[in-house]
Amino acid sequence: MSEDREFSVRGKRVTVAGAARSGVAAAELLVRRGAHVVLSETRDRLEEEKKLRDVGVNLELGGHRLDSFVNADLVVLSPGVPVSVAVVAAAQQAGVTVIGELELASRWLRGRIVAITGTKGKSTTTTLTGKMLEAGGHKVLVGGNIGQALSAQVEQSTDDTIHVIETSSFQLETIETFHPWVAVLLNFSPDHLDRHANVEEYASAKARIFENQTESDWAVLNADDPAAESLASNARSRRLRFSMHAQLPEGLFIDGEQIVRRTATGEEALVPVSSIRLIGRHLFADVLAACAVAGIAGADSAAMTRAVEGFSGLEHALEPVGAVGHVQFVNDSKATNIEAARRSVEAFDAGLVAIIGGRFKGGEFRDLAAPLAARGATVVAIGEARPLIREALGTVVHVVEADDMRSAVRKAFAAAPPGGTVVLAPACSSFDMFRDYAERGRVFKQEVQALESEWNVTREQ
């Protein structure tokens, strides 16, 4: 629950930096709360331009103006705008308070917060946690780094609302009072090194999820990930751990065909493994984490199981796309870092073709060599990272290059054996070729559909 009910922006000059989803929601919220709002954006045009002007937001498009930052009473950053941007740094030097959109919105929330972070699995865990809590009878709002921005939830927030929030390092690095009742750290591996100066800075941002917790709060931790455990070492909250590989003295784990929770007084079966409908056993860890949160909130095993049975995964996260001939296609466009791509590769057997590439974010493509080689895989390299991929993997597996997604899908199909699988597991951001990972995934699916149509026509001739 927010601890800053008296926070007010009425009559204040507030500049919002970045007009993506979170920035637009923040600007609209600030106007409703009585602020004089400037929304600053480097793009020349916005789809929401008329709507924003109509509600009283002043737009500054085509670049950030120094005066709007250094003369503001408050600067609010969209997650995509780094603190290191020159005008933001200048505002801080001028004594202007700078916070992120997540921090802003959380100051006005009335309900409790479940915050979920990690290098991979955030969206799946956040979505499934929301479904479990809803099945358990709670009023739930899900959003943050996925779906609805937190600023768009403020007006719907009530004392009995549980806000289930996916939180990224970009959001956490600008918090001050953000206080989760339950903070979940799924895992940790290097990522976003195109934004963070080094892995230590990235780790520090992730660890801030525990910063304002007290002894009455909860930290849900992955007992299989020593790095995640280390980041929570200073947390004052109670710990609840989960494990894919060990039967913990206390916590959640898989025992035979059941997810169970063990406490000092005994064990309780929560969810049958057979009810999980997700591709990739590594995603079972996300189910364990969601069960941990749901149990803290009082949801029973029946509610958890109903939610799991009705959840087949997210778009762009190991999403089955269909088959062409005897080759399966899977869209894992959300696998935007090396570790996520490795997990994606490991979800499949021999006969795999992996489409990898985009804008490099850091890490080691060599970490993919062993799992790819073990499956006799072929790699189709795309985007700016193609030379890096060929250098790292070309001596271990067969690597071919493609100029665009249409070519990549067709080359992957040609390389796949009957009964094989083509997976889009980029290990990179999408920004060299697409607007975001979602557009990349949609284009992949469109090209698979086009290939299927061509294949069917060829068979009929």
Précis, in short:
By secondary structure, the protein is α/β, with parallel strands linked by helices. The chain has helices at 21-32, 49-55, 66-70, 86-93, 101-106, 122-135, 169-172, 199-207, 226-231, 284-296, 301-309, 338-346, 369-374, 386-393, 405-415, 437-460; strands spanning 13-17, 36-40, 58-60, 74-77, 97-100, 112-117, 139-144, 161-166, 182-185, 218-222, 238-243, 251-255, 258-263, 266-272, 319-324, 327-331, 352-357, 378-382, 398-401, 421-424.
Index terms:
Protein-Tyrosine Phosphatase, Chain A; 461 residues; nine-stranded mixed β-sheet; alpha/beta; 16 helices; 3 domains; UDP-N-acetylmuramoyl-L-alanine:D-glutamate ligase
Q: Explain this structure to me?
A:
The relative contact order is 0.09. The chain is globular. The mean pLDDT is 94. The chain has helices at residues 21-32, 49-55, 66-70, 86-93, 101-106, 122-135, 169-172, 199-207, 226-231, 284-296, 301-309, 338-346, 369-374, 386-393, 405-415, 437-460; strands spanning 13-17, 36-40, 58-60, 74-77, 97-100, 112-117, 139-144, 161-166, 182-185, 218-222, 238-243, 251-255, 258-263, 266-272, 319-324, 327-331, 352-357, 378-382, 398-401, 421-424. The protein has 461 residues and is α/β, with parallel strands linked by helices. Strand 9, helix 8 (199-207) and strand 10 form a beta-alpha-beta unit. It has 3 domains: 13-103, NAD(P)-binding Rossmann-like Domain (Rossmann fold), CATH 3.40.50; 109-309, Mur-like, catalytic domain (UDP-N-acetylmuramoyl-L-alanine:D-glutamate ligase); 319-453, Protein-Tyrosine Phosphatase, Chain A, CATH 3.90.190. The protein contains 16 helices and 20 strands.
